[in-house]
Amino acid sequence: MAQITAGAALVARLGRLGVDCIFANSGTDFPPIIEGLAEAAAKGMALPRAVTVPHETAAVAMAHGYTLATGRAQAVMVHTNVGLANAVIGTINARADNIPMLLFSGRTPTTEAGRFGARTVPIGWGQEMSDQHALVREPCKWNYELRFPEQVQDMTDRAHGIAHSVPRGPVYLSLPREVLCETVDLPEVPAQMAPSSPMAHPGDIAEAARLIAGAQFPVIFAQRGAGSSEAFEALSATVDRWAIPVCQYWSLQLALASDHPMATGPDPAPLLAQADVVVVLEGLAPWMPDAHAPRADSTVIQIGQDPLFAQTPVRNFRSDLSLAGDLGCNVVALCAALDRLDPGDRSARRARVAATSAARWDAVDNQIAADGRGPALTKRWVSDRLARLSGDHRVTIFGELGAQLPAMRLSDPQAWFESPHSGGLGFGLPAAMGFHMARPDRLTIATVGDGSYIFANPLACLQVAKAQGLSLLVVVLNNSEWGAVRASVSGLYPEGYAVKANAVPLTDLSPSPDFAVAAQACGALGLSADSPETFETALARAVAHVTAGQGVAVIDATVLRD
User: Fold this and answer.
1) Are 344 and 428 in a shared domain?
2) I want to staple 86 with a disulfide (CB 3.0 to 4.6 A). Which of 56, 161, 482, 498 is the partner?
3) What crossing angle do the helices spanning 428-438 and 458-468 adopt, rounded to 10°?
4) Are 31 and 160 in a shared domain?
């Protein structure tokens, strides 16, 4: 690499590392980045796709969604401390989901004069912080400030390697403007740091298989999928062969088809009451300790990137055997170990679990049918209708207080993504956009509550979707309230004054905006529905619009309050 500015060297290095996109919200610290993009392009260097996103929450969530589709870390660039502050929620979400991400922000120029890149506008003083890194130090695995231009390759490579190392997560690098403005002569070298992706010890894998094989009633709890498509397929075959029920309680991704015969309902209680071996796959909170508990004589096996979740100060779920490392690799290894053992005759147990699963679905189907005969929409009925699209399309559904997994028959490992358990709202829509950028072959659907939709800065999101030529379906399940907050109040105070008065303060979001009209103003197809009949009509029109590549379609669906 000949003489080049540090800004150009940085973006070129991201391209060399295989970063596909830079999701950016620019500011006065960005001139060397912007000039660097132009400089590197003029010199024929391979560059990531630069995506302008006019709000940081959306930028981070788009990178998050893109990585859910590809497994590869993407770059997010924001403006000094104020942009970083807006990016904090998304960074917390990425950390909770173990999403590798390269987060960059400018740093207010250190010098006031006398150096190229020094402060030139009053905000250079207003945005100065003693410790800007403190904003994201806790949710990030690693953080550093670029001190010298010759560090560009080393620090970018280190950030990339650490982000991808298990347990994966976001990293942060601050970029002083003066450093980016300097020129540097760096040779073109391959990536210097391969990420670490450890697996559990083979002896622990064998012991877990022995415990499962010897159990009378083993149960698996899965919250974040199986780790890979290969692991999804292996787990499906293994739990069928060994007749092991799988509970996907508060699931963020599918570890098993939701209508697999061994897939149970979402209630952990009856399973924990019987289970003598409990296997937890990447479960931050596999059950609620105030309501459920494994038997005292059971054995609990926790499997995950960090099965004890060290970044969570308080999490006291028992773990008698902890298998750390890449989840997909460990699941495949455990299934292979069980394949080498003889399950014996499991037909009676398999029949019992399958019968329970079938009975649950019969009850759900009856509820859905009753909802469909009613005058108003329910989240349950809408969820079913969206899941049925998977019969004709490769569907990916993002949920954020929107669609309900227990009412959906989905069988693809990338069919379902729920918002992270960190609860940073505004995730669902932009994450679906990022996913769709990486996987335009899939029918991508964002299903969000009206409160979550507002948090996503929908005008900013729809502007980006239009600019990037994205075609996805957005269903706003609009009950004009913070439904999760109301449910929490009812849970703690079921006989309280708020519930008795049916007026829960600080939860009402009426009057609701007309989200369909707002979507039309942004160049999207905007539709409204308030009954099963009108929703069926709107859904058919929206799907035709999206699958024809005509842009975003938004359905403002008025639903009953839960």
Assistant:
1) no
2) 56
3) 10
4) yes
Chain center to CA of 358: 30
| Cβ contact 534:561 at 8 Å | no
Terminal-to-terminal C-alpha distance of the chain: 60
Q: What is the pLDDT of residues 93-150, one digit of tens each?
A: 999 999 999 999 998 888 889 888 888 888 888 888 999 999 999 999 999 999 999 9
Query: For 214-247, what is each residue's pLDDT tens digit?
Result: 999 999 999 999 999 999 999 999 999 999 999 9
- From 353, 384, 399, give the residue that closes a domain: 353
Same domain, 166 and 282: no
* Sheet of 473-478, strands arranged across: 416-418, 395-400, 443-449, 473-478, 553-558, 525-529
Q: What is the C-alpha to C-alpha distance for residues 359 and 267, in angstroms, rounded to an integer? A: 14
Q: Is residue 192 part of a domain?
A: no
Which range of 20-34, 284-298, 499-513 scores highest in mean pLDDT? It is 284-298
CATH number at residue 301: 3.40.50.1220
CB 57 within 8 A of CB 3: no
pLDDT surpassing 60 at residue 1: no
Q: Are residues 127 and 212 in the same domain?
A: no
Residues 329 and 403 in one domain: no
Q: What is the DSSP string of 142-203?
A: -EEE--SGGGHHHHHHHHHHHHHSSSP-EEEEEEEHHHHHSEEE--------PPP-----HH
Q: Is 359 part of a structural domain of the chain?
A: no
Residue 249: pLDDT band (50, 70, 90) is very high
Query: Both tokens of residue 526?
Result: 């905007």
Same domain, 394 and 528: yes
Last residue in a domain, options 318, 353, 388: 353
The pTM assigned to this predicted structure is 0.95
- φ/ψ of 168, rounded to 5, equals -75, 160
Residue numbers of the domain that contains 37: 3-185
Do 383 and 327 fall into the same domain? no
Span 349-364, mean pLDDT? Answer: 96
Residue 345 lies in a domain: yes
Pairwise CA distance, residues 199 & 33, whole Å: 38
Element (H, E) at 528: strand 525-529
552: domain CATH number is 3.40.50.970
C-alpha distance from residue 369 to each of 362, 384, 519 (Å)? 10, 10, 31
Q: Number of structural domains, the chain?
A: 3
Domain membership of residue 363 (yes or no) is no
pLDDT confidence bin for 338, thresholds 50/70/90? very high
Report phi then psi at 109, rounded to 5: -50, 135
Cα angle: 50, vertex 56, 58; to 5 degrees? 80
Strand partners, 475: 447, 555
Q: Are residues 416 and 307 part of one domain?
A: no
